[in-house]
Structures
1.
Amino acid sequence: MKIKQLSVFLENKPGRLSVPCKALSKAGINILTLSLADTRQFGILRLVLKDWQQAKQVLEGAGLVVNVTEVVAIEVADRPGGLAEVLEVIEQAGINLEYMYAFTFGSEDKAVLVFRFEDPDAAIKVLQSKGVNVVGSVELFDRAKH
């Protein structure tokens, strides 16, 4: 149920974001979703891609520093309060949420969000016990085709 995410470290300078994007494009690798966070000196580009192993090689070949982390994709009701309900489950279980971001697609009345938890296994167990749909990588990549 966990999904591999690549974290790419970039200098916070003009044109640095285009380096990984161009390298992946040239290799024919599609980005399913991404997040970019920055400080004054550097940024972290977080990517979810179907073939993360090849993407990691391509990015490292372009001279970039890449880390692999595990994230969890969760369906959240796409309505006011949907995210608040999921966050309440997480908070009541005492699970630390490090960050989150959204996919560009959902299904019917559900949005799909990416969560990075301090303890992803514990988070998955709690979420599933409360009826929250944790989306596996196969289902996620199938949805991305549409």
2.
Amino acid sequence: MAGSGSRRGARDYLVQALYQWQLADHDLSELVGQFEREADFAAVDQAYFRSLLEIVLDDVETLDATIARFAVRPTAQLDAVGRAILLLALAELRNRPDVPTNAIINEAVELAKRYGATDSYRFVNALLDKAAAELGERDGRLKR
């Protein structure tokens, strides 16, 4: 059974994979293959990594539209790290009802603090709060 540490590690790798995907346009199998070769990858929830990476790559247009709806600036102005974090968190909010909403948002904020530009975590937090409220209203999922 995967613990929170292994999902946290999967999220770290997902941000890196989504960043690389934006810059180099690698496909799913290339990205998974690359990260499988990382020594620490064995310690993360690999199924979680693969599932969310596939969800983001398959549904990027919808996820980007959600970002655009709630962003205070055009999505073209988002840096690749910030976009990667938002894509990941929105995919989790939409597709992982087993993960509490607050946990998803908190993890995204921590990722933004670690990898994002100064104060980008505030933008990530605000956008995800708005998106989570809308998604929660639509699917009956309460913010936990």
3.
Amino acid sequence: MVRPSTFVKIPKRRIGTLIGPNATTKELIESKLGIQLDIDSESGDVTIKLSPEETDPSRLFRAKETVLAIGRGFSPEKARKLLDDEEAMLIIVDLRNFVGKSESDIKRVCGRIIGREGKTRRLIEELTDTYVSVYGHTVSIIGPIEETEIARQAVEMLIRGRLHTSVYRFLHSKRRKLKKKKMELWKKPYEKA
């Protein structure tokens, strides 16, 4: 019987990070999800196969997200959130879709997203409880669904040239709304009918 599999390509310079020291990262992903990673270090091709004893094909997609996250610049520790948290997701924003293939434009936009001494990226992460990686021509975000979407919106605002202060206001406003929403969830079980 053919085992279900999927394929992903990552930059060759990220293969070592995916494998990890003494193959620890690779083995962790394999054991946690019941999959097998076949890594071609010459091309950056990664084939992900379901282990013979594993029956849940959705594990292939979780493994693919984790491998992609490491390939897009996240450390294995940050990418692990995709393994440990069922609510976590990965979004990848390709800057070429916004500014074309001009390397100087991509670098300029990356600089806007990172900010002076990393301030803007750090603020996006803190206010949305996400991880953000700016790598090559992509910006990747790991976090809970709603928070990841807010971080993506903030990144796209920066790409489109919005002022940093207006993006910060947007993030603070969304943060307040999220906190209020979470507080309402806690209140509901205690309210009397």
